[in-house]
Amino acid sequence: MSELKKTILYSWHKEHGQIVDFAGWAMPVRYSDITTEHMAVRENCGIFDVSHMGRIWIRGPGAFDLLDTLVVRDLSKVKENQAAYSFMLNERAGFRDDVIVTKFTDEEWLLVCNAGNLDKIWEWVQLHGKNFDVQLENKSAQSAMFAVQGPKAREIISSMTDDELPGRFRAGWITLDGQKVLFSGTGYTGEDGGEIALFDDSEELESKALKLWQSFIDKGAEPCALGARDTLRLEAGYSLYGNDMDEDTHVLESSLAFVPFAHIHKDRDYIGKEATLAKEGKEEKFRVFFKLVERGVARHGYPVIVDGEEAGVVTSGTRSPLTKEFIGMAYIPYTLKEVGSRFHVQVKRKVLEAEVIPFPIYDTKKYGYARES
Description:
Layout: H1 10-16, E1 18-22, E2 25-30, H2 34-43, E3 46-49, E4 54-59, H3 63-70, E5 82-89, E6 95-105, E7 108-113, H4 118-129, E8 135-138, E9 143-149, H5 153-158, E10 171-176, E11 179-184, E12 193-199, H6 205-218, E13 222-224, H7 226-236, H8 273-279, E14 285-292, E15 303-306, E16 309-319, E17 326-333, E18 342-347, E19 350-356
Parallel strand pairs: 3-13
Antiparallel strand pairs: 1-2, 3-9, 4-7, 4-8, 5-6, 6-7, 9-12, 10-11, 11-12, 14-17, 14-19, 15-16, 15-18, 16-17, 18-19
Helix pairs in contact: 2-7
């Protein structure tokens, strides 16, 4: 068995949290308890170490054209200093990964990918990059990245810099607590805030990252781990690669093939386009957000039951720490994808009724990045 990879803050996590194997990385699943960490993000501010994610720089005259081939989104619509969520597909229109690409100029982009997919995405980018005039740098190991999320996140970040923070899904370099970092108004919780990347090739990366991490905690940010990240993203209705989508998930059945994330009809070539368009109108299943009408937690892999027969599968499930409802995601027959449709889930020895619902599950006037107060 190969040794687990570790982020630059592994020693801190080991001292303060419970470590688990996450996609080949030794990562904390909790520090205090999941509900405490979850509610800190919904009501105050939490900080996550997301240094395990991949960070690849793509520069040169062919940078735009390379990414335009690899990514389903219409990148001609992406402005300078904008971070854009999208997907890389295989030739079968399955997900190689879901990614965020940030444009600085037509000739300079940053690609952020999932930790478990870093090696294959780096190889994928290198393979296709041979056809373009680009310079590629995988700076994942020479950088640290934190997600600072919650209604007070920007207030805390602003207290540590004299620079103006970029807005939601915007990015820019700022000096934060005396260190130059890249701030992106992105995140995976449904809340406001951002992700902060510290790039440093020196041996001081660990000490600099730890100093910055501790500064956030001293300012009132709650350290949060994988358990809270999962419940937060589920409440917001966000997919998790490896659970809710993978290489065998067709993009048109993922519920994610919509503008601006994907431009499937755009008059350009992207990898997977032929298989995407060939499936249009022939979808057999669809990923939905649901809640159980009865008490029980629908876990990953539990069968979906329709008319007494197995007809799909649960991909994610939890009990919402905020609303106390039992929620999840599942692939069900395409004909049942509309909100209000009912199906059943086999939860251990019980068959429980479920209902397709819209996301996020929380009241957006009270929670999330668009909250009113």
